[in-house]
Specification:
Elements lengths: L4 E6 L2 E5 L5 H11 L14 E7 L3 H7 L15 E6 L2 E6 L8 E7 L3 H12 L9 H9 L16 H4 L16 H9 L4 E8 L11 E4 L2 E12 L4 E9 L8 E6 L2 E8 L9 H4 L1
Antiparallel strand pairs: 1-2, 3-6, 4-5, 5-6, 7-10, 7-12, 8-9, 8-11, 9-10, 11-12
C-alpha cells in the first residue's frame, strides 16, 4: 500500500511517514480497517514538516544545532528522538535514503523557517549545500535502494523485491496479507529484483526497458540512471531467479540499441553500510 517509515515516538504514539502525494489513498485504507481497532489516526501532513540532512558531516552539523546528545551511542541508526534543534521542537529520525549518514528532522509547520536558518547558518562551517529529489534519486542507485511505484508497488511481492527481510512469518496475529505471505514463502517467486552496471553511451535507462539474454527478453527495467559518485550507469530490474549470479552478463535495450549490462550484488557506495550505520 505504500513505502512507510514507522517511528515509535512513545509507548502508545507512532509517526508514519510516506509519500505526500499518496496521503488520501493511505488515509482511505487505514480508515477502512480502523473501526475494528482501538487506534486514533490523524493526518498531520500539513502541520509537521521539515528537512533531511545527509553526508559524512551530518552528525557534526546536527550536534552544532542542538544541546542534546546525538552521538552514535545516544542515537544509533534507525532510532528516533524528540529533541530541540535550534529554537524548534523537533522529531529527529536517524535514517537515510542517500546511503550516507543522515537524519530526517520534523518540526511544527510554523517553525520550518527557523529550522532552515539554523541548519543553514551552522552548515556554513561544513560547506552545506541544498540538494533535491533528483540528486537523492541518483544517490540511492549506488545503494540499490528501490523507489515506491518503481521497485516497490502492489504488483510485486515481498520476496521478489527483497522486502521479505521485514516480514515476520512466525507472527501469531492474523495480519492483512499473512496468507499471501505464507503462500509465497512456500512457493518462492520465479523472478527477483537485481542491479546492473550498464555500458551506456549517451543515454541511461529510465524504466520499462527490456532486459535481454541470449537473444531473448528475460526481464524488464524498473528504474535507473547515472550514479555520480561511482561514475556508473545503473539499472534496477527483474530477471528470472535461475539467471541471478554475481557478474552475470545481459543486454538492456536503450532507445533501440543493445547495451551490455553486468549484474552486481554489493552496493557501489559503501558496501558494508558503515557510513550510514556508524
Amino acid at each position: 500500500m505504500g513505502d512507510f517509515t514507522i517511528s515509535h515516538l512513545a509507548e502508545n504514539e507512532y509517526q508514519l511517514t510516506a509519500s505526500f502525494s499518496a496521503q488520501d489513498l493511505h488515509m482511505r485504507w487505514f480508515e477502512q480497517y480502523l473501526p475494528a481497532l482501538n487506534v486514533d489516526l490523524k493526518n498531520i501532513s500539513m502541520s509537521r514538516i521539515g528537512f533531511q540532512i545527509a553526508g559524512p558531516k551530518a552528525r557534526e552539523l546536527l550536534a552544532a544545532c542542538t544541546r542534546f546528545d546525538v552521538s552514535h551511542s545516544a542515537m544509533p541508526f534507525l532510532s528516533v528522538r524528540k529533541i530541540e534543534v535550534g529554537q524548534c521542537d523537533a522529531v529527529v529520525q536517524r535514517i537515510s535514503y542517500t546511503g550516507d549518514l543522515g537524519y530526517e528532522i520534523y518540526v511544527p509547520v510554523e517553525q520550518q523557517i527557523s529550522l532552515y536558518h539554523t541548519l543553514a547558518n551552522e552548515g556554513m562551517a561544513f560547506d552545506l549545500k541544498p540538494f533535491g529529489m533528483r540528486a537523492m534519486m541518483s544517490l540511492r542507485l549506488e545503494k540499490s535502494f528501490g523507489s515506491w511505484m518503481r521497485e516497490y508497488k502492489p504488483d510485486y511481492t515481498p520476496m521478489e523485491t527483497g522486502m521479505d527481510r521485514f516480514m515476520d512469518y512466525k507472527k501469531e496475529a492474523d495480519y492483512i496479507g499473512k496468507a499471501a505471505a505464507l503462500k509465497e514463502l512456500a512457493e518462492p517467486p520465479k523472478r527477483q529484483l537485481v542491479s546492473f552496471i550498464v555500458d551506456a553511451i549517451d543515454a541511461d535507462v529510465v524504466a520499462d526497458e527490456p532486459i535481454w539474454k541470449d537473444g531473448n527478453v528475460v526481464g524488464f527495467v524498473t528504474s535507473g540512471g547515472y550514479a555520480h559518485f561511482s561514475e556508473q550507469s545503473v539499472a534496477l530490474g527483474f530477471v528470472p531467479t535461475q539467471m541471478i549470479a554475481e557478474g552475470a552478463t545481459f543486454e538492456i535495450e536503450i532507445l533501440g540499441e543493445m547495451r551490455p549490462a553486468k549484474l552486481f550484488s554489493n552496493p557501489l557506495f559503501d558496501p558494508q553500510s558503515n557510513c550510514m550505520q556508524s
